[in-house]
Amino acid sequence: MFVIPWVQLKLAQLGRIPGPIFWLPLIGETPQLMQSPFKYMWKRWLSYGGIFRTSLLGQQVYVVGTQDILRSVWSDEEAFEFHVPGKTFSMLINDIRHLREPRQHAFFRRRLGQALSPAAVAANLLGPMAAVMRRHLDSWEHRGRVLLSHASEELSMDVALEVVTGHPLPSSPDAKALVRRLFRTVLNGLYGLPIVLPGTAIYKALGARRQLMKILWPLVEAEATEVAARVRGGKEEGGEEEDGEDETLPGVVTAGGCGEDAEASARAPTLRRRRMVAGAGDDGGGIGVAPLRMLEAQVSSALAGGEELSAILDPEQLFERALGTVIAVDETSRHLFFASVAAVARAPDVRSKLEDEQRQALGKYGHELSYSVLGDMPYLEAVIKETLRLLPVSIGGFRIAKRDVQLRSGFVIPRGAVVYWSTHLAHCCDPALLPRKPAPEPARGNHPGPWFRSLIGAGSAGAPGGQEPRRGLTVGVYDTVGGRRALARSIDGPTGLPAHLDFQMRFEEAFRPERWLIAETRPKQWAAFGGGGHLCLGQHVAMAEAKLLLAMLLRRFDFRLEDPEVLRKASLFPGPTPRRGTDGLLLTSRPL
Ligand code: HEM
């Protein structure tokens, strides 16, 4: 019984990061993580604190999730290199230099920052997005019942393909449907085993990838060449212009309404569409940097990063960039659409507050749903942030340590280590959501007594060598194993999870958008979009599309889940996914 704490102590004294000692060969702790990421992370955090070592997918991994460590992993690009684990991803996308290589990455972020800024969302994306959503909601209305997860998947794929990538698509409905199906097959390949044998997911994905390139290249080639010529002739060549990333101002912009023009613009080919929205303000509606189209952003960032034109116009390269965008949009938005609608349908109080807010907006702005109108819906924004906190759609990200990295806590992440920053871990131990003080220690019980704690050191696995816990950086009192144990003892309930995480058994207590409306209760370790050097570039797109969908849905329908417990039965990996067939959503039209 004392062996494991003793080994932990020894490791901690050596600056070695603690973690479980036994795990299954090859798969390690992957099944526990996949089955219930919050339960897994909560238990591990109670035992080890904000950093621990484990094995995932056959690889030793250092999992991190508290503010001080996240800050370093997110921002110190000298120490940590962006990494995508799993062979299937690299089989489908060979080249991620634009994410990994610092110079190319800087240009990529600048240009993509412009293409995905609030100004660009308002001017270029919101209108076409609303048109696509309206088309889907018409079909939902016609059917009266949809399987929410599947309907969300169809919608997110159309938003990704028709709106965000900005690439031309075939015009015939059959060919479009084929393109969608092929992209879905490619994406399914990401989650299979990396075994290329007839019938495997990756085999099908590689076949679909080849077929897609054949269909799309003739459509994209002319436009890409034209864009490249324009970009080369323009002032951007030297890459000396302002940094578009600085635009992440709380963008309140006025352009980009959702009326008939938006419908027309959604149908127009990309370049024409750009000219049409120019009327919305080439300065992007007042933010000051011209919004770019995605294709231009990708071509210009590669040129500025020093790539040869021939390499940029290589069909493979262009396709991979487009595929990267589809993955970024679809693999996240479909889960967010599903989770946010399901959560609102599950929580009548939340829904009636949302309806009140929509009534107010209708009274103030009429039927307009522009970026600035969506920006004036604080409760809706809180609902989406709370959805992303409780039902994260991204599990986090990976880095490789380029050298030994000494953390402030004294632990050392060794050179070459794979580091996994976990959204679930960050949300588990958010200092704003934990009680300020753990429950007092009981006088008796089978917990280690003072003699044992002095043996293992007061800080135990939370700080090497039993040093005093560092306060104010992570969760203060919970930096010590004693503090965390006391906290664990104060939690009752069948899952062993605290109320702020227990969406399965205590949904009403867990899902509380109100916490976002007051500074004191607002989560402080919210990591839904990551942070630092790789902070999600699509966060304004993601927030806008989720707000738009919910606003349109609330204004048009009374909706309810056939099975109100769909979220209780859902799995959270890789994003909120219902058990097959449990996610029927019934819709009745009624104007608000
Ligand atoms: C709910 C929706 C979304 C979530 C939760 C999400 C989450 C994330 C996270 C956590 C990262 C950081 C990964 C890391 O640090 O390793 C990231 C990066 C990124 N996201 Fe998103 N994302 C979403 C939607 C989108 C959309 C719609 C787009 C594109 C339109 C997008 C584009 C990107 C890009 C390009 C990066 C890489 C940034 C870089 O490496 O510099 N994301 N996203």
UniProtKB/TrEMBL annotation:
SUPFAM superfamilies: Cytochrome P450. InterPro entries: Cyt_P450 (IPR001128), Cyt_P450_CS (IPR017972), Cyt_P450_E_grp-I (IPR002401), Cyt_P450_sf (IPR036396). Keywords: Heme, Iron, Metal-binding, Monooxygenase, Oxidoreductase. Pfam families: p450 (PF00067). Residues 238-248 have a biased composition (Acidic residues). Residues 231-270 are annotated as: Disordered. Belongs to the cytochrome P450 family. This is Cytochrome P450. It comes from Volvox africanus.
